[in-house]
Design brief:
Blueprint: H1 7-19, H2 24-32, H3 49-74, E1 78-89, H4 90-96, E2 102-109, E3 114-119, H5 121-131, H6 147-158, H7 161-168, E4 175-182, E5 196-206, E6 209-218, H8 219-222, H9 231-240, H10 244-255, E7 261-264, H11 272-276, E8 294-298, E9 301-311, E10 314-322
Antiparallel strand pairs: 1-5, 2-3, 2-4, 3-6, 5-6, 7-8, 8-9, 9-10
């Protein structure tokens, strides 16, 4: 994005050029020269914006299903939504999370590598409190989780693997399984520190407690399915997923739907006094000219221009032209 100068800066620049302190030709030459952009090889971007959007779409669906799962298990208000999707070095992800947190490590066969779900302690303790019959309040704890608390949380997140499986089903079939449950991120040695990972950050609210849930996906997991993370693939998948039998049945039912068809001979407006004074043989003038076609309406929407006539001893109309949505027709 170009820098916008203030009026004072513009005046000072013009003054410097006028006085000779600054050469306009040199400025023009500098502008024409190729600009060097700094690139950090430690922070290599391996995924395009299109692919990042696809990953975001997958996890928006995952967040909705996780919300449903949490709500049904905890019997309280839960809201989970995707906040951001970024690609960062694995080392940066490890540094960004707390020293003591809740880490669920999932295998996602047949894909290689492991996926990490990092749950903020505020959310973890609120889950525990609710599971144990509390209101879902955050517990202020300085020490690590007990073995019973670890077991309860592990069982809770083990049951949630189906949400991950269903959310990824639109791209590939996976069989996620909770392999490890950790508290200290320093024990995470899944990939090299400089390897690129995609971090999906989600905001979670359980009752009055809020916190973050982060999904870390190493590049090794996504590499085999990168071609599927494109808009073109998603559009083709949507076409393939259409049930031909259901589509034909719906089309057949629609064709049997009855609609109201009316041909408008003309309209007119008279005063109440004139209406009350009407008697036999009086004539009411309509706004329809005799040399112009009539309007045919379907469910009160003008669709065709027609001319009146007779067919098999019945009043009929012959279609002259179709009026498409947005087109004007002569009155």
């Amino acid at each position: 994005m170009d820098e916008v100068l203030s009026q004072n800066e513009i005046d000072a620049l013009l003054s410097a050029i006028t006085s000779g302190e600054m050469d306009a030709e040199e400025l023009k030459k500098e502008e024409q020269e190729k600009k060097v952009r700094v690139y950090d090889f430690k922070r290599a971007l391996r995924f395009s914006k299109d692919q990042i959007r696809s990953i975001s779409r997958i996890h928006e669906n995952y967040a909705r299903m996780l919300t449903t799962y949490f709500s049904s298990q905890l019997r309280t208000y839960v809201n989970i939504s995707v906040t951001s999707v970024d690609q960062v070095p694995f080392e940066e992800f490890v540094r960004s999370i707390q020293k003591v947190t809740i880490l669920n490590i999932y295998s996602v066969e047949p894909l290689d590598g492991n996926l990490i779900m990092e749950v903020n302690p505020n959310i973890g303790y609120a889950l525990l409190d609710r599971i144990l019959g509390g209101k879902g309040n955050t517990i202020n704890k300085n020490n690590n989780l007990t073995e019973i608390e670890k077991l309860l949380l592990r069982q809770f997140f083990e049951k949630a693997v189906y949400t991950l499986e269903e959310s990824w089903a639109s791209v590939t079939e996976i069989k996620p399984r909770l392999e490890e449950f950790e508290e200290n991120p320093q024990f995470l040695q899944m990939v090299a520190p400089n390897d690129t990972v995609v971090v999906v950050s989600m905001t979670a609210a359980i009752g009055e407690t809020t916190g973050m849930i982060n999904i870390c996906i190493p590049h090794i997991i996504l590499e085999p399915i990168i071609p599927k993370l494109s808009v073109h693939y998603w559009m083709q998948a949507e076409k393939k997923n259409r049930d031909a039998t259901a589509f034909n049945k719906m089309s057949k039912n629609l064709k049997q739907t009855e609609v109201e068809v009316k041909s408008i001979l003309g309209e007119g407006a008279i005063a109440i006094n004139e209406f009350l004074a009407l008697k036999q043989n009086d004539v009411i003038t309509l706004d329809q000219k005799i040399d112009l076609p009539l309007r045919l309406t379907i469910n009160n929407e003008v669709k065709f221009l027609v001319q009146p006539g007779k067919y098999k001893n019945k009043m009929s109309v012959q279609i002259l032209d179709e009026i498409k949505r947005g087109e004007q027709y002569d009155e």
